[in-house]
User: Fold these one by one.
Assistant:
Number 1:
Amino acid sequence: MKALTANRLSDGEVVFWKNGVWVERLTDAEIFADDAGAGEAEVAARAQPTVVIDPYLIDLVDSAGFWAPVSYRERIRALGPTNHELHGKQAEGGGAVEALRQAHGAARSSGRVNLIRRK
Amino acid sequence: MYRYDAIDRAVLADRTAEFRDQVRRRLAGELTEDQFKPLRLMNGLYLQLHAYMLRVAVPYGSLSPVQMRALADIARRFDRGYGHFTTRTNIQFNWVKLADAPDILDALAAVDLHAIQTSGNCIRNVTADPYAGAAADELEDPRVWCEAIRQWSSLHPEFSFLPRKFKIAVTASPHDRTAAKVHDIGLLLRRGRDGETGFEVIVGGGMGRTPYVGPTIRAYLPSNRLFSYLEAILRVYNRHGRRDNAYKARIKILVAALGAEAFAREVEAEWEKIGPEGDVPAAEIERIRDAFTTPDFSSDPSTGDFEARRAAEPAFARFVRNNVKAHIRPGYGIVDISLKGIGETPGDMSADQMDLVADLAERFGQGDIRSTHEQNLVLPHVRLEHVHEVWKALDAAGLATPNINLISDIIACPGLDYCALANARAICVAQDIARRFEAPDRAEAIGEFKIKISGCINACGHHHVGHIGILGVDKKGEEFYQLTLGGSGAEDAAVGKMLGPALPIDRVTDAVEAIVDAYLRERREGERFLDTLRRTGDAPFKEAVYAEAH
């Protein structure tokens, strides 16, 4: 499973793709089961350069009934910095936040690696 | 402090207006991200994991109370109520919105601050001894030269697009508090045989993925020839630096490839061509010297009840032992403010804490505040009779941790919690180690001990020159940490040696404690950790860390 993420141009906020618009919470994001749908969304997202910067796809795993990024880096992006638990999206708390905190997986996003290679 | 003149202020106003228009054009879609990114970076604006980050230059680590209050105001209005002091003596704001950035630059310019040349392949903020003008062992105040270098290098057309970034340090004390030997250029003020002052010139030090302690290419350069010599070094670098490979583009690679002697010959030949016309006139140096306000020192050597309180209050005595240093004038002390509260984020400071330090500097510190490359602050001129009151106020605000140069005074980069380049976190590792060594008696018994942590090989956390260096790496998709031993950023500069295989995050603090315990077993009277390590080699420490793995 995949989600599409980027940083919002106006404030740098981490955002996720949902049917052509951007939402702030991973729990609200569109989840792609197949590469074709994810790829089409990525192409569409790249056509919004005044809305977001550098959209890329991330891999997800199931964690306690929620979708969580495989990579540690992406979990920190989805939650906020681990040294300030009241900063970032994690400040809201709740089951989805806890599921992300408990998730395990690779430390780096495969999508991000591809992005770096492209640059 | 150096006082800006009308020209300085006009330059900043023009620059901010220019950036405001660039931001407007980007938000309107008139500039692409590829076009805009180098423009925002030239104004210190990075995109990190969660938001934009603005890196503000603190010129050679000197701040006035007015400037500190302005930083507090920015933290409250545009960030989340705090800022982060870095290993470059700058301050970063981690939660900046793009549309707010021009307003922040205006607020900075109003107090003679800016974010110019805090990014990009240019000459960055100059590092100075944070005890400059106060250290008992100082030859002269190096900040005059730092300010002259700042003015000379700011927006210098020939050196705005170097092969890579370029960092200069200046110190005038035999004890190096600037890490001069791991800068692109380190300038050590020396007294010449003729009684005049000059510089030992070190070129090609650095950290990152290829660390070097820089070699001396000139043992003594008369100070009136400094700028032509700097120009010669930078021209040789501009001509031969590896622009084809970003990983090999720093001057350290060029110096190592040519060899220090050959590099020095190239510089001397270029210097000959430039001649004295390339130097800054003495009158201009004097103008800059005069633009520094002189502290209003009292000639009264009395120390009030300083000694009595020190004898009566053990906690105050501990603070004095660790955080107060000898001042060049009788009756004064240098007060180190630790931004390494146990369990806190190294270098972080709240807006309220900034305001408090501004107040204390104004009331007791000649209006002078310094930031250090070890992510702490300094009040360089405090009368000893006032140190107790300063300590009480700092203590109430969580700023009086008596741990300067001790094991919990840890440098840590922002790491994977904020940085887009990091592979692993650094802050939480520092917090965990600090908690383990929280007991102040134990920390003092261990003595000078510098732990430095980086979340990636770019080494913003200076791990190469840590007595224990800790480097976060991505190993099979998990956060692992590589330990190095024996580094030093001081006058005995050295690059640490790798101890063994990287450790998972939950073994790092145990490994540090095993190293400390081995040191306490092995050390001889008066030895620092580094001295013991240099005498014994790393075998006892390797055994201590990896014994259970075999």
Number 2:
Amino acid sequence: MRRRSFRGPVLVAVALALVAGACSSGKSSTTATTATTATTAAGSSPTTAAGPLKTVKLQLQWFTQAQFSGYFAAVDQGFFKKHGLNVQILEGGVDIVPQTVLAQGGADFAIAWVPKALASREQGANITDVAQIFQRSGTLQVSFKNKNITAPADLKGKKVGNWGFGNEFELFAGMGKAGLNPGKDVSLVQQQFDMKALLSGDIDAAQAMIYNEYAQVLEADNPSTGKLYQPGDFNTINWNDVGTAMLQDAIWARTDKLADPAFQDTTVKFIEASIEGWAYCRDNPTKCRDIVVAKGSKLGNSHQLWQTNEINKLVWPSPKGAGYIDPTDWNRTVQIAMGTKNADGKTVITKAPDAAAYTNDYVTKALTDLKAAGVDVNGTSFAPITVTLEPGGN
Amino acid sequence: MAGVTQVPAVAERDPHVAAWRRRVRRVVMFVLALAVLAALWEGYKWFGQSVGDRVFGWRLPARSDNGSMPHVWDVVRRFGQPERRGTSHTIGATVAAGAWFTFRVAMAGFVVGVVVGMALAVVMQRFGVAERGLLPYVVLSQTVPLVALAPLVVGWGGNLTVFGIRWQLWMSVAVIAAYLAFFPVAIGGLRGLQAPGSEAVELMDSYAASWGQTLLKLRLPAAVPYLVPALKLAAASSVVGAVVAEISTGTKGGIGRLIIEYSREATSDPAKVYTAMIGAAALGLVVAALVGILDLVMMRHRPQVGS
């Protein structure tokens, strides 16, 4: 029996660090990926059956962050309670797919990107988009100014980063629209979920969510100036402008449960309170940030405020009413999902989803109620604030 | 001459002094190893920076700039700084709290894993049919990727109430830790229970000892040398399982979750990422040390074989 030497523990430590390292690189991918599920009763109080409150579970795509601020605000400000709902918010995780959790009955509502949810739907998940909270896409293609990439056509011959895993279709559709063949005309680079490859010059144009990775770049030190990188150092391609944006965060519910009048009523109330929460965040971005931070987000204060502000821009203004699923946007999303092939030659879905894939029935009722209660559901006069990012997002 | 050499010789003969020497030497070696690691890190960084990360036109395997490899002292300093601006809570305190959470979950998984593993070992030893039937599945169980398993376990636990207690997410993490921990115990335990030679078993038979008596008085004591390394493996596995399960399912409170949370800031605050990783490594060290103590306790009455 040879006694343990110091090698044992060191090996364990190294192994752990390796595991941790491997996982962490895989992890952050999902930050923007948004393909996540989990089941954390996010610090919410235990369900008390007492009282008239109906308990409803909402599955997020990722950890607590301002991307979901409207729901946290609705909990914090008592908007859900006002409608007789006790909402438990379940955080996401690296391997948690919200629409799958929803389809399996682990949650009553889930937040998911439309193309990803449609892909799950085609594989049998019986779910319906009941409110399109994000009216716009938050995906950018970011490059240094001196690369002169201001439009998709400029990507020709460049090293183009993309996340893959279904996050790349807006980029591919944009390149296709500009007459580029993504397989031949650009060199595609599988991108990590941090932005180091862009900053070190390994890729010319990197994918970024405007509310997260783009902010990370602007929180990093520019070695040549000794200060933070500035927006003026970069060009960004915004897919909303190019016309290949796909719908992102939406509220999904189970199609079969929606046949139940009681659940229909719950759905209207849930959407109503959620939109009120989003309106609160539009009008009180700083307070809304504080609510999210109080819920345990680890992101820095300025990063979180930036995210709140950018998310507000994706939700507001909302000419047809917040949460309304604009058929034009929906159809464009479906067209791209069916017609655009990724690097593996795959499309998101193979055939058009049936009519049950989305409905404006509940959101329309919710909007009517909210207007009657005097809530501004259009945000026509919405003006974003100016956020100064600090080093490290702190 | 004789007088000079005699002093250490006497000391060597005193087992207590020798044991303490070993311990001190171990601590010194550990600190030295850390220092060597830090020196290698900084040395690589310095070399990479001075040659522009290229040697004879070949790119070095890892970039050496501050964004990819922060200075050791930057990482250490980060432990003492607040996690977020305007709060007094330091990163060090957060990492320690996360490691403590993960430690408790891993230990819950470890205990469950050891109980299940031992039960399986006993059943497999008792019934040859069980060994032939179960063993392939025990081995097979470890080939299921954890990342595929974790969301499933979380899904099953979603609406569960056990003995009046509502299923908590950390319990799913503990189950995954147990899933990794039971394997070495089952395999090592089975091997250990089968260790006594036929003459020993026949002796017990000649006393008309029951199966239970043979198990308690012969097989279990004989299994201890096999169980000690199995428990070491199980403890390490339970920590890895807990960390990976936390990462996979996003369980709040543990070191795995912190690793993800912090690595989201890898672009702008690279030193922070390493604080959580160091926390995870330290947790592994602590668990290894605890199992070392268990080893000492369980093996204290056994003759030392070899050195």
